Amino acid sequence: MTKIKKAQILNYLNMLKIFGYNYSEDFVFEEKSSCDFSLPSNHNELREVVKSCHLCELSKHRKNVLFSYGNINSKIMFICDEPSKTEDELGEFYHGNSGEMLLNMIKNVLKLDKDDIYITSMLKCRPKTEANIQNYDSCFCYLSKQIELVKPKIIVGFGEKVFNYFIKDDGEFLQKRGDILKYENFTFIPTFSTQFLLKNPSYKRDAFEDLKKIKTVYKELI
Prior knowledge:
The protein has 222 residues and is an alpha/beta fold. Helix content is 45%, strand content 12%. It holds the Pfam family UDG.
């Protein structure tokens, strides 16, 4: 229900009250989470649910849903913030300039193959403008289920948006990126998003150091 429609309903009810109508009991409007529904515990079935999702307005503008790529038994999970334009058009990870940069990081620094990693995105649809918290809350239902099914040893969060949502620590990203943190029972390591690095290449050296730490932790945990 849109805000305009809600306002129209409230105005109508107030008008009825002015003319002497009384409600038999008070209306109670409860805040309902978009996660108030069960999700399948099968990865392929979950993918199909997400592909047909219409929980928020992002579904109106998407070209494709960006769900995941890689090994569902992987010990390391990459979480990006949102699909790039190219990823939205193709419905696949590792495309466009940011995707190619990430692929180079995986191969040249982590010394892994992209099929060794499970990658997903916080937002499954590309926002037309700036995404809001409701968009992230809607998608986080699916992301939480993905984490539950994959059970990674390490979660790598790419970008400040991912860091803030997981760690709930606004303003500390630059100080804590590259640190070994905790999210529930998982090891969580934040670093820069590739889209940020493309716009701010001076941070590539810092990202390289983060990746070296991720490589070391990964080897220790597996």
